[in-house]
UniProtKB/TrEMBL annotation:
Species for this entry: Massilimicrobiota timonensis
Pfam family, one: ABC2_membrane_2
Tagged with keyword Heme: no
Coiled coil stretches, renumbered: 499-533
TM helices/strands, residue ranges: 198-222, 243-263, 301-324, 331-351, 393-415, 451-467, 579-599, 620-639, 645-665, 677-701, 707-725, 746-768
Source organism superkingdom: Bacteria
Keyword Transmembrane: yes
Keywords carried by this UniProt record: Coiled coil, Membrane, Transmembrane, Transmembrane helix
The protein's name: Uncharacterized protein
């Protein structure tokens, strides 16, 4: 067995693509972790506060935090009062209100004058915010034993209520009270929890570990199977049971090592920058874990979290190994695991905890991966009539899944049936009737490379997404839309007359209000009633003022027209209508085009095709034409759908109007029309898509390996947009995002956009040149 395990380790060490994936993901994870830490409150603040707490006895730490919190809150109010008193006569009421709400603030006046410099951060406001967070945590720790006492009292009260008299409810109440009764003698230590909480609550870590484990399981199974080595191994003496068990062991060991290194690195980073606190304190000394009924210290909790994460990732690895053994090829394996995660995410997000289907929410891979959350929440649930706690259920399901998943994998592996299906045979079998080279290449893309399936899936997702989208418009927005729909187009005499009539109408209403105010014969109640009736008619006045501003602008710039600007601003300037479609488009292109060239290298078809008459540049030209068509289809799906939706809601009118008709576009040249903006937007997006596709094809001819190409394309094309989508904005200017949101950058930063367009065109030309040079080089 040991030689087999050693051999599997040597094979994985020789997988350069896997090593590259591993290193890039680990580096990306640590980078994103450091970026995601609370930038408003520096880590040094936690370190200073922790060092101060260590110098105090445990019983004095709460009082110290309370005094610091009150002092800096008073400093903030005193600073506000100092600014208000610069114009005391005008701000007298506000000053009086502040003093009434904070009667003790004057007690800190002398201390504020002598020294009110920030102690933990760079500003007084940040200090107050930081100490408020610390005081909230310390207060939860202070009231912990009262919290336990309240649970016991509530259990006694509930047990006496008739609706809770059933045997199951009584057991749940008694079990909850009993679980927390054991914690009455737990020692609570006042210390910081932020560093440890951030280490285990950072979701990107779980995401990257999932990708690593799925890639690891894929390489352990699918590479041998597609190369035909699996059937050869089965002919050897130890080629059945021992081989698959060795693969299990290697997968588990590599997963454990990676998981341990990731969390050890994060713990070391946080310990160096802000400290971890006393690791021997009870887990209940972390305020957010007051519901945890387990008796353990923080050090044991860290071990439990890492160990549980390893088990969950190992279960996921076994699921992936089963899929690789059962399904026909790599594409179906990855699509199946993606569908599995989509179903799991949907179940986790959409099922309510009190729903009859609540077990699907908790017996769920997403729930398993969030190890920090299920320990924070105590829930006693019934599984098919058997009462248990949530964390016991998780442990049982994961261990059972590991056992049955392993047995299933072994049974499939040792089965005499050959589940594999060679890609070359698959192509040959289904394509004999295609005589045209062009039709053959397009058939490979649509059918064999599953682009047709991706197109259908994309159409379904877009339809489902926008079918359930609703746009809210308040009364003023509706009035403004009706005004602009009536006025849209060039300025005419009729429109001038209508605007003057509206202005006279609103002026007359103001005159009526003024007359009511000056009428001494009316009571105050009657005046108020009449003014309210007239005010209802003035609702559209603010909107009319916006219309009037456009009218005055058009008078000064005759080439401008009345245009309802909201649909244009939403489509061109709002990230909610551009970022998500761009992200989906990059995923679509990466999954559609990553094996356009690699499928021939891996099946050695290129060695046959290059000796044929049309097997030279003609094949490559057809592949590039196919890529262009797929880009066009993808752009039509992901950019056309929101365009159609916005048109159905608002309507894109006056496409021939000058861009300066819309206030936000007035910095653009007036010779451009709104229709030109759509053409420019589509052209620049096509350039960046074509540039990225060319680069992807160059990666293909360099790597000549499908999974390496897919991973690199996802890292370069998808992950930057995914991070921007999750509001990590540092990637905006250094990624290709400006070209996908080009109209906004035409207004805000045109130089950056021009530079990126030039770089994209250069990259496209050089990449295509490299592709034509190396496409037929034999390895």
């Amino acid at each position: 067995m040991m030689p087999l395990i050693k051999y599997e380790f040597i094979k994985m060490r020789g997988r350069k693509s896997f090593i590259v994936i591993l290193i890039l993901l680990l580096l990306s994870q640590f980078f994103l972790f450091s970026v995601s830490l609370n930038q408003k409150i520096p880590l040094s603040a936690y370190q200073k506060f922790h060092q101060t707490l260590l110098s105090l006895p445990n019983e004095k730490r709460y009082e110290f935090t309370k005094k610091e919190y009150e002092k800096y809150q008073s400093f903030m109010i005193l600073e506000q009062l100092t600014q208000l008193r610069q114009n005391e006569q005008k701000n007298a009421s506000i000053i009086e209100e502040l003093l009434q709400e904070n009667p003790n603030v004057e007690n800190y006046q002398q201390e504020y004058i002598s020294n009110h410099q920030p102690q933990y951060t760079s500003s007084l406001e940040q200090d107050a915010q930081f100490l408020e967070m610390m005081f909230d945590e310390m207060t939860q720790l202070k009231t912990y034993f009262q919290y336990i006492k309240d649970i016991q009292q509530q259990a006694q009260q509930l047990s006496g209520i008739s609706i809770f008299q059933s045997h199951q409810n009584q057991n749940e109440i008694e079990r909850s009270a009993k679980d927390f009764q054991k914690l009455t003698h737990v020692e609570v230590t006042y210390d910081i929890q932020y560093p440890l909480e951030m280490v285990f609550s950072f979701d990107f870590t779980s995401l990257f570990l999932v990708i690593i484990v799925l890639s690891l399981s894929y390489y352990l199974i699918m590479e041998e199977r597609e190369n035909g080595l699996m059937n050869l191994l089965k002919l050897s003496q130890n080629g059945y049971m021992k081989v698959i068990i060795a693969k299990f062991i290697v997968m588990f060991l590599i997963t454990s090592i990676i998981c341990f290194l990731v969390y050890a690195g994060k713990l070391g980073y946080m310990a160096w920058n802000c400290g971890l606190g006393d690791l021997s304190r009870s887990i209940q000394s972390m305020a957010h874990y007051r519901q945890c009924p387990l008796q353990m210290n923080v050090k044991q909790w860290i071990g439990l979290m890492i160990g549980f994460k390893i088990l969950v990732l190992s279960l996921l690895g076994i699921i992936m190994m089963n899929l690789c053994l059962v399904l026909k090829n790599r594409i179906l394996s990855w699509i199946s695991i993606l569908v599995f995660f989509v179903v799991e995410v949907f179940s986790y997000l959409m099922i309510h905890p009190l729903s009859s289907l609540y077990l699907l929410k908790y017996i769920n891979m997403i729930s398993f991966l969030q190890t920090d959350i299920y320990l924070k929440t105590y829930r006693y649930i019934s599984v098919f009539g058997l009462p248990t706690t949530l964390y016991h259920l998780h442990i049982f399901i994961i261990i059972a899944g590991l056992i049955f998943g392993s047995i299933s994998c072994i049974c499939i592996y040792v089965c005499k049936r050959d589940f594999s299906l060679r890609n070359a045979h698959f192509v040959f079998k289904h394509c004999l009737h295609l005589s045209s080279l062009c039709s053959f290449e397009f058939y490979k893309m649509i059918k064999i490379q599953k682009v047709g399936f991706l197109i259908i899936l994309s159409l379904f997702l877009q339809y489902y997404q926008y079918h359930h989208v609703s746009v809210y418009m308040d009364s003023e927005s509706s009035i403004y839309q009706s005004y602009m729909q009536y006025l849209q187009g060039p300025l005419t005499d009729d429109k001038i007359k209508w605007i003057e009539q509206q202005q006279d109408y609103f002026d007359s209403l103001h005159q009526q209000i003024e007359k009511i105010e000056n009428n001494i014969n009316l009571t105050s109640q009657k005046k108020q009633s009449l003014k309210e009736n007239i005010s209802m008619k003035l609702i559209g006045e603010n909107v009319f003022n916006d219309v009037k501003e456009q009218y005055e602008w058009i008078q000064k710039h005759p080439q401008a027209e009345f245009v309802y600007e909201r649909p244009y601003e939403e489509y061109f300037l709002s990230s909610s209508w551009s970022l998500a479609p761009s992200l989906m488009l990059m995923i679509f292109l990466s999954l559609s085009l990553y094996q356009v060239i690699n499928i021939e290298y891996e099946n050695h078809v290129n060695e046959v095709s290059q000796i044929t008459i049309n097997g030279n540049h003609r094949i490559l030209e057809l592949k590039i034409i196919g890529c262009v068509i797929i880009i066009g289809i993808g752009m039509s799906i992901f950019y056309g759908t929101p365009l159609i939706f916005l048109h159905s809601v608002y309507g894109f009118s006056s496409l021939g109007a000058s861009v300066i008709s819309i206030p936000t576009f007035r910095s653009l040249p007036s010779v451009l029309t709104l229709g030109h903006l759509f053409l420019i937007d589509g052209l620049i997006k096509f350039i960046i898509c074509m540039s990225l596709t060319s680069f992807l094809l160059m990666i293909s001819v360099k790597a000549r390996h499908t999974m390496t190409t897919l991973f690199i394309s996802l890292c370069l094309f998808v992950i930057p947009l995914f991070l921007i989508y999750n509001q990590i904005d540092c990637f905006k200017d250094i990624s290709f995002y400006p070209m996908l949101n080009c109209i906004q950058y035409c207004i805000e930063n045109p130089i950056l956009l021009i530079v990126q367009i030039m770089i994209s065109i250069i990259v496209m030309i050089l990449s295509l040149k490299k592709v034509f040079q190396q496409y037929f080089h034999v390895l």
